[in-house]
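To make this tangible, this section ends with a sequence with its structure tokens:
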Amino acid sequence: MKTPQELHQELRQRTLKLPGVTERENAGIHEDAYFVGRTMFMHIHDQGRCDIRLSKTDQERVLADGRARPHRWAPQAGYVTSVVTAEKDLGPTMDLIQMSHQHFSNSQNGFLGETNGTDGGASRKPRTIKLLVIGATGRTGHEIVQQALARGHQVTAFVRSPDSITLTNERLTVVKGDAMDESQLAKVMQGHNAVLSALGPREVFKPGSILHDSALATTRAMKRSGVKRLVVLSAAAHFPGLANRIASFVLQNHMRDSLAMEEIVQASGLDWTIARPPRLTEGDYVTYRCREEAAPPMGLTIARKAVAAFVLDAIERKEHFERIVGIAK
């Protein structure tokens, strides 16, 4: 019979044999954390407890089948817990680890181009992505378009007033249209890799349904056109907390509309990400902190440029599928 230490090492060695896996000791609060690319997909604590991160669909299925325990601290991020106390536990736990590894390996490999063949992939760069940006005339939408072009992507700006876009670039196409018109959206998004929505309300204090109506038209159009990847901007005020409750009360009409938008996106069956930034500023930086299903601590503001960087990173790296993500400075 193997000791707990031997079981730990056996699990560790099996995990490290998976393609592209790296190990980091004491990553945050975790004793042994395992990454594929930039994503931590599992970690091992003492007493043989393995916390394994799955896709939302896999998590629901595994818990329903009784193959793992609910994770105590971060079930909303996709984690489940499997405990290894005997050799018979190694196989079932490795099945879950391989399921997680496969999911996040696929995510890391998305939108990648060719390497030069001499550096093992270190110089691999994102290939050109064709993006449809809704709300491109807003201040955040403008940043998204600028940064996407700077990264070498092709951008289609779907706007009500094309004259509002003064930027010119051979990879930028400006199309006039109504973001609440499903047929117009379906026609223009054909052949795109992803859709980014940076729409905001025209009057935050007045009742309106622009976000709800656009989300409904966009998700339906994406299903018709076969585009799966969607990133939308919402609001950090939907997270718990006194300051957010106050903001939600003051901006209750906008909050009601953005929450309705989120519900449509989450029920769409698409590969969605909902980004919830706090108060937006005109700061000149692109760095950010992000946290799935929660706001980063003390995250009171963020620059529009940083929001643009986050949404483009999420698209390029294929991260945060079916997740609400808090972002902040």
